[in-house]
Design goal:
The complex is a heterodimer of chains A (218) and B (468). With 218 residues, chain A is an alpha+beta fold. Chain A is built from three helices and eleven strands; from the N terminus they run αααβββββββββββ. In chain A, the strands form three sheets. A four-stranded antiparallel β-sheet of chain A has the order 2-3-4-9, with no helix packed on it. In chain A, strands 5-6-7-8 form a four-stranded antiparallel β-sheet, with no helix packed on it. In chain A, a hairpin with a 2-residue loop joins strand 10 and strand 11. With 468 residues, chain B is an all-alpha fold. Chain B is 63% helix and 3% strand. Chain B contains 19 helices and six strands. In chain B, helix 3 packs across helix 11, helix 7 packs antiparallel against helix 8 and helix 12 packs across helix 14. The longest helix of chain B has 31 residues. The radius of gyration of chain B is 29 Å and the shape is elongated. The chains are: A alpha+beta (218), B mainly alpha (468). Chains A and B meet through helix 1 and strand 3 of A and helix 7, helix 8, helix 9, helix 12 and helix 13 of B.
Chain lengths: 218, 468
Amino acid sequence: MPTRRAARLIERLQGFLMAVLLVPVARRLASTVRRRLTRTAQDRPPTVPGTASPGDEAEAPRRRFLARLTLGAAAVVAGLLGVPFAGFVFGPGRRTGRAWRPVGEAATFSVGRTVKVDYLDPSPLPWAGFAAETAAWLRRESDSHFVAFTIYCTHTGCPVRWEEGADLFMCPCHGGAFYRDGTVAAGPPPIPLTRYPVRVRDGVVEIETAPIPGQTPS
Amino acid sequence: MRLLGPIGRWIDDRLGLSPAVQHTLLHPIPRANAGRKGWMYIFGAATLVAFVVQVVTGVALATKYIPAPGHAHQSLLLINDTRLGALLRGMHFWSASAMVLLVFLHMARTFLTGSYKFPREMNWITGGFLLGLTLAMAATGQLLRWDQDGVWTVVVWAKFADRVPLIGEHVARFFLGGDTVGGLTLTRFFAFHVFVFPALMFILIGVHLYLVAYHGISEPPQPGKRVERGTYRAHYAGLLERGRPYFPDGTWREAVVAAALVAVVVVLALVIGPVGPGPAPDPTDVAAVPKPDWFFLWYYTLVWLKPPRFETLVMVYFPLGVGVLLFLIPLLARGGERSARRRPWAIAAVGATVLVWGVLTGYGVSSYWVPDFDSPPIAPAALGIPPGPAADGARVFHERGCQYCHAVRGQGGRYGPDLTRVTRRMSPEETTHRIVAGIRDMPAYRALPVAEVEALLAFFQAAAERGR
């Protein structure tokens, strides 16, 4: 998808972009402040005791330089603090990508049934606790054919549950419903349930995990 | 200070107390603000008091809250188990509720008295940022409960963010702290709730209060007295010359309100207690029914209301547009009448906002569209239905999930119409067609066996007959 590629590109270029966007803004700001400062010095006699006396023409270039130096040094401090902060806090974060996860022996799933399977995220952190696991709905269509659906409703991301009797996936948040093949049956969801890749290896069903972002078409 | 003698004078001089007190406490306020109309002006101070309560209770809670995904929930249960812990968590929730409510009341008052007009535009704009930060605190705070709702709220936010073009995926990853809900998700919300947002709020509250002092508190408006850029400041200076000292003529109301507010918060915390945490978080538990706290219920309803294919509009651009409009208000209407009596549209706008908010929140509370998964099966005998096709129909009605959304004789969900007397509205053919073909918000039960459809029809018939 072009949007996703563009977003990834922006991620990669973000330091550069930040500089491109922020440097002119900072410059503009600095020049405005400088203009204000010099105007203050020339147009208005300083009223605060201790500031330089007006009409000190010989001092003007030096003072302009010192003003620039002050702002420059302040910008250095802000940059040295801000760039690592912003990069660390707002950066793309930890990428764990995708992984094939076993969810059970193929023989344990009966044809025509939809069951919830739990599996580990790719490379979970040791302290993640509950948060290390995720789930999917797995349906055995035939002997050889499995389908896996996301548990996230395509409306707002609430957990959909499979209701065997009703033969529907139902969402508790806003009453969305999906048929057993994941297509929208009723309510506000705009698109069918996302499917995950499934394969059977040596009699074990495996699901490929997927990151949560990027599943929703905008 | 005179009473304290030389030591007092030394402290006063070296700390520069007198000038500070002179500026912050003893400055004059317009006579009218010290009178009965001063009661209109207490919401800002009350919001600040709620913020102070949040800081104090929040710091206390932070000493025993473990911001780790595997342990946060247990640490909250531990805090709830101690009497003071439960009190503090209760105060933190109720004071947060008060703060959200008060910040909106404060905004409505500022809007209705035209206080955002020249020269106080920046008071409004800094207030707008503070409103946004208050809501951000409310949202992240709900999440830190780290129960089922908390975990699923993160997923919902990530899904919302994912809709924003271009930067959406990045923002979603930012919320999650990676690809999925995991080991880094909770700590980022903790850091923002505890460090980043409060720091920004302290700075902005400082600016906001400085501006109130700098421009002076806005005087109660008088109909017909227009704000003109050329004359307003002189007019206001005239008011101050005949003004009253802020302390104690203006402060006593704020102090009384502060005491009442904190007392109400403590009483609510003692009587109703803290909220949650709910069931332990589990991203694999699909039985969760995530629902926001009352502050965001209106939005929850709005998201349900939105027509298909307008997701991004309602979820992203609408809130964004409201935010931008908010900041534009003081720039669009800088001068002119301040009195609400001469600004019927201002009253209408506030009234409409309150009405829409109330209706949406009301629907959010009832959220009748949520399937009633736990509705117990209808016992045919209780309705006087003898064993037979009609009794079988009652069973089908429950087993096939009809009852999630439809009720018969008061038992069942409320999304779809009550079917107790459906036979009076629709013929058996029409009902059969509706079951098999579905309609807008009702799925089509294409594969339902004919025998079960007939049992349902018999059940509806019997329910209608016994209903008389």
